[in-house]
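To fix ideas, we reproduce below a protein record of this kind.
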Amino acid sequence: MSISSSAVLARLTLNTWTAEKLDREQTDKVLATNNADSGAGKFSKNLMAGTTLVKEILNHGTAIRHWHEKNTLAWEERGARLLPTSLFMQFKQEANMHKAKRLMLVGELCDKYVMLKGTARISLGSMYREEDYPSVDEIREKYKFTLTFTPVPESGHFVLDIPAKELEETKQSCEVEIQRRLVDAVQGAWDKLYAMLSNMSKKLVEADEDTKRRWHDSFVDNPKELCRLLEHLNVTNDPKLEAARVELERAMLGTDLEGLKESPVLRAQLKSKVDSILASHEW
């Protein structure tokens, strides 16, 4: 099966306004007061001092990026990522929910913008400058959410008026590049699994009596979620990757967080299974 029929490219762009601005006047004062060189530091002021709304938007943006990376595989450096078509509908629905929440947060910021500027004026005191603040329309643009989907290119898709020999060489060159990216993408799926297993193995090491370990639901939920995702992210149907996925899935069957917390035996048994998976595959 061609990769172009089993995956698409998803490109996420999140514009960001941090509400921070370099204050050159205050920077000069701080440097002069401390008899410091001009390159010793900079002073940035928080234009939205007195509210956490901007921080909420930024934190939500970070969560969106993590979600995007978790559900896709690397394809282009800082660009489009490979999304299996079997995940497309769920991915699109979740993207719509993320976008709706972002629009809600940005809308709240814009609705309260005038009031929040008044709060910032009090917090910033003489550092407040009206000209530092973008308009409401500019604010909305600065938090723009864009998600686009494009087909994975194929080496034979050329509409170029060039000699046959050069055309064939170009096709071959593109095919090599596509295969390289595909290998790297699948390695990304292996890396996700390796990181999960390694972290589990470290967590399951018996601690000293004086050391208390914190156990969270994510310790059980995350491996199960990864097993579900890897069914889709294995876009080349790599049998070794599928075997490793199944091994982890079986290891997690019946695993109970409360049991792990209370029983060193159960922790040792799970660690043995995890370490066995790590040892039986080439990472």
Notes: The mean pLDDT is 88. The chain has two domains: 10-151, 164-279. The first strand starts at residue 7 and ends at 14. The first helix runs from residue 3 to 6.
